[in-house]
Specification:
Blueprint: E1 3-5, E2 8-10, E3 13-14, H1 20-24, E4 27-28, E5 42-43, H2 44-48, E6 53-57, H3 59-69, E7 80-82, E8 85-89, E9 93-94, E10 115-118, E11 124-128, E12 142-146, E13 173-180, E14 188-192, E15 200-207, E16 217-221, E17 229-237, E18 241-246, E19 251-260, E20 265-270, E21 274-284, E22 289-292, E23 297-307, E24 315-319, E25 322-329, E26 335-339, E27 348-349, E28 355-360, E29 384-385, E30 393-394, H4 408-413, E31 418-420
Parallel strand pairs: 1-31, 4-29, 5-7, 6-8, 7-10, 8-11, 9-12, 10-13, 11-13, 12-14, 13-15, 14-16, 15-17, 16-18, 17-19, 18-20, 19-21, 20-22, 21-23, 22-24, 23-25, 24-26, 30-31
Antiparallel strand pairs: 2-3, 25-28, 26-27
Length: about 425
């Protein structure tokens, strides 16, 4: 079976290379990503002179690479590739074209489709300089990576949006790398993420190297309006807040998330977000999950919240909203859920049994009579695939001469495992 890389803007146009299948749900198993030389990938070392030596400040090189892929052709994105290395940075990397002084520009310079992909999750590291100016004040947190949204309206319309909020943050993603806030940066937000409809943070480690695990937030989604998007296979180590989400509009899905050694709370849901969790493994001496908002909708399936403190009375979950737990374990806890919102059911207190089959924080409202429990439906993971053997990749260009499909059908029929559509090419069908 061949996997097709790319996206079709229209029948006669092959758009720039995009890992849409990764973002849509397929899993790239394994640690390394490599691509053919003619794939049109923007390489921060080869194309923009980034060193990745852990000593040189690569901020400007990475930002120039990002700006090179941004434009108003939102449906023809490529992506920025970071080969193995430690990329030292000293300022925010974002998907915003800097507005010229005094000039009004559409979407305040923000462009969607920022996709950063590392060669190796463990050996591609974006690391903030130690004690970096602008990142030392937790009362004024600042992100290392910041994703923003375009805005509705004609290209002539302008609205000042320095925060980049919005619901047109299409195809924003971060895949297969590590983001490290370094030492002495308590005001650092590792990733300030925003995506709409299609976007993902996947196979990413977010950590603080500080001896005290200092850092403000690992993965922040505090601007309007996050989702729908996917966060999967992400580990967050340290920080005051591991993962935060605010507001409502669309849902966010979180799967296979590991949180350890947060200093204030593991996961914080503020306002009225819709958050679906599966396969969460949190080990903390602070609350694992705090739901601050009576209209929040939080679903947690197949997860483990482990108390690493000596306080058995610590509540794993502090809740004000609509909470559903199913197949969730609470090692070392006696208080699983403490509710403080209006019209909520009694707290969930554990006795000898530390595994909760099902818990609802509010009595369900139904239109018709039915069972009092939800069915335990199986959830299957997406299939995995992977090959770094580039001999098994093929471009339609190889078959394009005389082909009625521009070589696309022939490439699919060739037996290759991956068919890739390189950036900047045009295929006539």
């Amino acid at each position: 079976m061949a996997v097709l890389f790319g996206s079709l803007l229209m029948p006669r146009r092959v758009a720039c290379l995009l890992l849409f299948c990764v973002l849509a749900g397929s899993v790239w198993a394994g640690d390394e990503y490599v691509f053919p030389a003619d794939a049109g990938v923007v390489d921060v070392k080869r194309d923009f002179g980034a060193k990745g030596d852990g000593v040189t400040d690569d901020t400007q090189a990475i930002q120039k690479a990002v700006l090179s892929i941004l434009g108003e052709g939102r449906y023809t994105p490529t992506f920025v590739y970071l080969p193995k290395g430690t990329y030292l940075v000293s300022d925010t990397i974002w998907n915003r074209v800097p507005p010229e002084p005094g000039k009004k520009v559409w979407a305040d310079g923000w462009r969607c489709s920022l996709l950063l992909i590392g060669q190796s999750r463990t050996e591609t590291v974006i690391r903030l300089k130690d004690k970096c100016p602008g990142y030392t004040d937790p009362a004024s947190p600042k992100p290392i990576l910041m994703y923003g949204s375009e805005n509705h309206g004609e290209k002539t319309q302008w609205e000042p949006r320095p925060s980049g909020f919005g619901n047109e943050a299409f195809r924003n993603g971060l895949i297969n790398c590590t983001v490290d806030v370094g030492v002495g940066n308590p005001g650092a937000i590792a990733v300030d993420y925003l995506a709409s409809n299609k976007g993902a943070v996947r196979q990413v480690t977010i950590r603080s190297s500080d001896p005290a695990l200092a850092g403000h937030t690992g993965l922040s989604q505090m601007r309007s309006w996050p989702g729908p998007a996917l966060v999967k296979d992400v580990e967050i180590i340290g920080f005051d807040y591991g993962l935060r989400q605010r507001g409502m509009d669309c849902s966010m899905t979180y799967q296979s998330i590991t949180l350890r050694q947060q200093r204030v709370v593991g996961i914080e849901a503020l306002g009225s977000p819709t958050m679906s969790f599966r396969g969460i493994h949190s080990e903390n001496a602070v609350p694992e999950l705090k739901v601050d908002g009576n209209r929040a909708l939080i679903i947690v399936l197949d997860s483990v919240f482990k108390n690493t403190s000596t306080n058995a009375q610590l509540a794993a979950i502090q809740n004000e909203g609509n909470l559903l737990l199913q197949n969730v374990e609470f090692p070392n806890y006696t208080q699983a859920v403490v509710n403080s919102g209006k019209d909520l059911l009694p707290n969930l207190v554990l006795a000898g049994e530390k595994k909760v089959a099902q818990y609802l924080s509010r009595k369900p409202t139904r239109l018709f009579p039915g069972p009092e429990t939800l069915p335990a439906l199986p959830v299957k993971d997406a299939p995995t695939w992977h090959t770094t053997d580039l001999s098994k990749w093929v471009s339609p260009k190889k078959f394009a001469s005389g082909s009625k499909t521009g070589g696309l059908q022939e490439a699919i029929d060739s037996g290759a495992e991956v068919v890739y559509l390189d950036a900047g090419s045009t295929t006539t069908i």
